[in-house]
Design goal:
The protein is mainly α. It has a domain at about 35-90. Helices cover about 75% and strands about 0% of the residues. The protein has five helices and no strands. The chain has helices at about 1-5, 10-25, 30-45, 50-60, 70-85. Helix 2 (about 10-25) runs antiparallel to helix 3 and helix 4 (about 50-60) runs antiparallel to helix 5 (about 70-85).
Length: about 90
């Protein structure tokens, strides 16, 4: 899905993919949640800073996920986004 984010025009991505990304962040499968976290990072970098507030809440909620791999990926993604946009509150 991360590749799809970069291929589809930004407007379509915001209308069609964002709801899917948000829905999938609560999937029962750990690997799906990890994949969607990576997709969130790609999405935010592709769409731009305006997408940070939309997805930051969902990423932050994954810090309390019962699986350490999910928590780790969420943290890595937040740090990556913060350094990409040089957003101090995300670092």
């Amino acid at each position: 899905m991360a590749l799809m984010v970069q291929i589809i025009p930004k407007e379509v991505s915001q209308q069609k993919l964002l709801p899917i990304i948000i829905e999938m962040h609560n999937d029962d499968n750990v690997d799906v949640r990890i994949g969607i976290i990576k997709t969130m990072g790609t999405y935010i970098k592709w769409i731009g800073k305006e997408s940070v507030p939309v997805l930051y809440t969902y990423l932050k909620s994954l810090f309390s996920d019962p699986k350490w791999r999910v928590r780790n990926q969420a943290l890595e993604t937040i740090v990556d986004i913060g350094s990409h946009f040089q957003v101090p509150f995300l670092l």
